[in-house]
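6,7-dimethyl-8-ribityllumazine synthase: structure tokens wanted.
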Amino acid sequence: MVEDKIRLLIVEARRYSGLSDALLQGAAQAIDAQGAEYDVITVSEAMQIPTAIALAEEAGHRPVGVRYDGFVALGVIIRGETYHSEVMANETARGLNDLSFGKRLAIGYGVVNVDEEDQAWTRARASEGDRGGKAAQQCLEIVGLKRQLAGQSR
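Answer:
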């Protein structure tokens, strides 16, 4: 059986563009290292990521839609003076978990939730926390597991 190349969709929230770039760099490096392909779409805020993934997954079932093997969610949520950031973080995670469990989607979680910007940089840089790269690796792991359980090779 000829193995299809893995194709992922990276959905990145661009609220903090420099941090988003760092997360994307790590994810792209991890995906490239595995010889997979990827597309990137952007949204404004982290809470939009689950919706974008759901729309992309649904579009993949249409004749002209692109079918993705998995999704990488990237974004940054920095605590403010109110509890809004907690709501954003919780609802983003809940939305991604609902998609992962309910639709059996392979989703790598690279949404950084921190108290201050310096913490976000530490987690985002590929040379430090590499949260984007780790999210891509987690997604690729689940894609591989799905293929293995379906009787396909990685």
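The mean pLDDT is 93. The first helix runs from residue 17 to 33.

Cheers.
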